Amino acid sequence: MAETALTNTGQAPARLEGWRGIAGDWASDQRAFKNVSWGKAMMWIFLLSDTFIFSCFLLSYMTARMSTTVPWPNPSEVFALEIAGHHIPLILIAIMTFILISSSGTMAMAVNFGYRRDRIKTAALMLVTAAFGATFVGMQAFEWTKLIMEGVRPWGNPWGAAQFGSSFFMITGFHGTHVTIGVIFLIAIARKVWRGDFDLERRGFFTSRKGYYEIVEIMGLYWHFVDLVWVFIFAFFYLW
Amino acid sequence: MTNAAVHIEGQQSLHAHVHDALAPGAAHSKGQQHPIKLYLVVWGWLFVLSTCSYLVDYFGIHGHLRWSLILLFMVLKAGLIVAVFMHMAWERLALAYAILLPPVLVLVFVAIMVFESDYTHLIRVISFASPT
Predict the structure, then answer these.
(1) Is B92–A36 a contact, with Cβ atoms under 8 angstroms apart?
(2) Which chain B residues in 27-86 lie under 8 Å from chain A, judged by CB atoms?
């Protein structure tokens, strides 16, 4: 490129950092998000919009709980289990939390091995992540069944404020849907990694575009977000 | 800024873009590369923090201490996940602020709904709640 030779000193100009960097990135007449691909930027923006959806659910739960004159059922007791004759409060939810955190750990490692182009380890770790996710959804199905058997409905329950059921089914149901979609997404990408699509630069059947290992990181962003949402649900719905 | 300066700025950006795609050391030409140990340490911390927040419930801590502990562990866990697992700590500030600032504004919505639900509760107590 002849034109760039005018400014070419052999090194790329250092990008500004700090506030001047933010102003510079946003004011440049190209893309605002330097050195982030469009796929990753769009996943972040999607996650931002999803944050607002979950914020609205948690906010409506807060409003229902604060404005009701009927006592709120004690989640510590509602989600307690009898294990080997011991009554342990909230144990199922605690196990689910640890499972989801473990899946986040394996996902982070999968991203790492993906960038090292170790496709077998990447695919294996993604499948482990998917297995953790499926276990989580299974335990959630068990929890829902247990509560429905005990008489919890979106319009009422035996222990207190009627809004408990609707908040519970709405929030955990939407989160469980996200986990389920994540498991499907994980299996689809793991298959591509296993087959070596990103080493062979094979074109996708729908978009005809070449895939890159970056899709593993983008997938990881979604999966970590699901874990992130659970952190907030665990704190506000189960522990509060 | 003069037109010439704008032009040079444009050229520099283009050049930087090309450089990103080619230079092996650039953050995204080979993706986010960090040692495995970092992920394991963060994973361990997430386990510790989750255990702590579960113990808050297990030992039945109540009142302001309970809420502040729950919020503290929640924020620490969320911060670790976003910063390390989602690599936000290594992204440029333009992206970090674009993604992280808007959710903070949800706190304004929270404040509005706190006033609203206090008001609803008051009206319910005055007008609808059973006298017992």
Answers:
(1) yes
(2) 27-28, 30-34, 36, 39-40, 42-43, 46-47, 50, 53-54, 56-58, 60, 66-67, 70-71, 73-74, 77-78, 81-82, 84-86
